[in-house]
């Protein structure tokens, strides 16, 4: 999938001129008319925007690749800052085993530069088109019981806060765990420093197993290096994958799924027809066998056509029961799920707003197609998923759709009040709060 198209920015810096610009996320479900869309080239230009009275009054949002399902950017009526000119690796430090990278760099760009230098991130998200700042802001994750979210690998950050000050936060600062999942409301992230590991290859094995068997033996995932599975709704089938380091020679890359397989996996047909299609797709996907790839490539998965998605994170100990509850809801006819349900795992981490905070975690992701003929068709199915998984003490993924209030979420995050204090100190006027985040943090 190509990088998500971005709207044409306004001038490099025009803090006085008005230039209303349409902006939408990659699926088109989040859209609006921004007051201005600017792509500044320097930190001084960024600072001028942040300190501009008009921009502050209307609100400022930072946009990356637009891969959030949720309305974190909230474009309407605000000044949007595009960090496309703040890209690239600043430095790789082999002694410290770190890389410092500018915030507008995509994960794909970072992975390629690291591979060329003989390094890699410890883990990789399922897609690589997001900016590094967006990945960290939302606690985006891969699938490994040995690693937390990608935010957990951040060891330092530089942020331009609402007072125009550039703050450098390191692993010695208590605020680092607030910055690690910042939701875009602490300021403009300038660059991030990640821990890295030596570059390596992974042997990835894909096979088909009955879902009941997978859930009965879910503890097997505690011991894998990387791994997860997809349940194919309206069937009893699951596709399980595992990956582990190897010295074997690389194999040819598998390439993207064909159009027929994509159509079978992602459909909005009646349950009986969808079940037959998903069974055929599972049989085809289960023939994947074993492949050896560069570590970041092995952990990528192909994203379906434009969709809306929700994802809930539940403790590993409750994961099997949560998935069984979702299966029952689908089978009784109360929920039509149109695409494979993605199940992944992360280790406990320490970020105040991380869905994986303090516990080995299972992430359960459900998507639904976005259709021009029925633009709100995804709401009822995802609301039903939200209702089922909330009852298992789940925490929704920040970058995906959920239907919870700030008060409800605060009760599930022991670090919520600490984050509120940090946000209030760094942005007391709420310059970086859009409507969605204002609803969560101020009501």
Query: Would you identify the regions where 5 or more consecutive residues have pLDDT less than 50?
Result: 1-18
Whole-number mean pLDDT: 90
User: Beta-strand level of the residues, as a percent range?
Assistant: 25-35%
- What global shape is seen? globular
Tell me about the largest β-sheet: 8 strands, antiparallel
Question: N-to-C terminal Cα separation, in Å?
Answer: 38 Å
Number of helices: 14
Residues in helices, as a percent range: 25-40%
Structural class: alpha+beta
Query: What's the gyration radius in Å?
Result: 21 Å
Question: In which order are the strands of the major sheet placed?
Answer: 16-13-15-14-18-19-17-20
Number of strands: 20
Structural overview:
The structure is a single chain. This protein has 443 residues and is an alpha+beta fold. It is 27% helix and 25% strand. Strands 16-13-15-14-18-19-17-20 form an 8-stranded antiparallel beta sheet, with helices on both faces. Strand 1 (21-24) and strand 2 form a beta hairpin. Helix 7 (259-265) packs across helix 8 (271-285). The longest helix is centred in the last third of the chain and has 16 residues, at 316-331. The radius of gyration is 21 Å and the shape is globular. It starts with 20 loop residues before the first strand and ends with a helix. The model is unreliable at 1-18 (pLDDT under 50).
Quick overview:
This protein is of the alpha+beta class and 443 residues long. It has helices at residues 43-51, 53-58, 107-117, 132-137, 176-179, 211-216, 259-265, 271-285, 295-298, 316-331, 379-390, 406-410, 416-426, 435-442; strands spanning 21-24, 31-34, 36-38, 60-63, 79-82, 89-93, 98-102, 119-120, 154-160, 166-170, 188-195, 197-198, 201-210, 226-231, 237-246, 289-294, 307-315, 341-346, 361-369, 395-396.
């Amino acid at each position: 999938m190509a990088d998500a198209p971005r709207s044409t920015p306004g001038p490099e810096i025009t803090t006085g001129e008005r230039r209303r610009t349409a902006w939408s996320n990659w699926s088109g479900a989040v859209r609006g008319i921004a007051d201005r869309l600017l792509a500044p080239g320097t930190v001084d230009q960024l600072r001028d925007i942040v300190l501009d009275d008009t921009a502050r009054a209307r609100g400022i949002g930072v946009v990356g690749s637009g891969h959030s399902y949720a309305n974190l950017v909230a474009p309407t009526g605000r000044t949007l800052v595009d960090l496309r000119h703040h890209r690239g690796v600043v430095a790789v430090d082999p002694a410290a085993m770190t890389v410092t990278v500018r915030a507008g760099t995509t994960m794909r760009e970072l992975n390629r530069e690291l591979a060329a230098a003989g390094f890699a991130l410890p883990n990789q998200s399922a897609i690589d088109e997001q900016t590094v700042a967006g990945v960290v802001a939302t606690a985006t994750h891969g699938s490994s019981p040995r690693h937390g979210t990608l935010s957990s690998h951040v060891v330092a950050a530089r942020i331009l806060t609402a007072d125009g000050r550039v703050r450098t936060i390191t692993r010695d600062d208590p605020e680092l765990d607030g910055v690690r999942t910042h939701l875009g409301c602490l300021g403009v992230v300038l660059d991030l420093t990640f821990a890295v590991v030596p570059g390596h290859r992974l042997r990835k094995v894909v096979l088909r197993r009955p879902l009941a068997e997978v859930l009965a033996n879910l503890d097997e995932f505690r011991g894998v290096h990387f791994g997860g599975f997809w349940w194919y709704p309206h069937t009893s089938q699951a596709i399980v994958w595992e990956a582990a380091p190897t010295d074997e020679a690389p194999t040819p890359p598998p390439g993207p799924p064909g159009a027929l397989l994509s159509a079978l996996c992602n459909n909005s047909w009646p349950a009986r027809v969808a079940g037959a299609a998903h069974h055929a797709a599972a049989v085809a996907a289960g023939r994947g066998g074993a492949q050896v790839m560069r570590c970041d490539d092995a952990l990528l998965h192909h994203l379906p056509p434009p969709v809306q998605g929700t994802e809930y994170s539940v403790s590993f100990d409750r994961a099997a029961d949560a998935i069984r509850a979702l299966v029952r809801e689908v089978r009784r006819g109360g929920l039509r799920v149109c695409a494979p349900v993605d199940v992944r795992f992360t280790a406990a981490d320490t970020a105040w707003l991380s869905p994986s905070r303090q516990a080995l975690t299972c992430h359960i992701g459900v998507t639904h197609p976005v259709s021009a003929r029925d633009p709100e068709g995804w709401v009822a199915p995802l609301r039903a998923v939200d209702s089922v998984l909330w009852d298992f003490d789940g925490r929704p993924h920040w970058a995906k759709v959920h239907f919870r209030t700030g008060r409800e979420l605060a009760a599930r995050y022991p670090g919520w009040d600490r984050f509120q204090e940090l946000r209030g100190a760094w942005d007391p006027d709420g310059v970086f709060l859009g409507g969605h985040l204002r609803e969560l943090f101020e009501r």
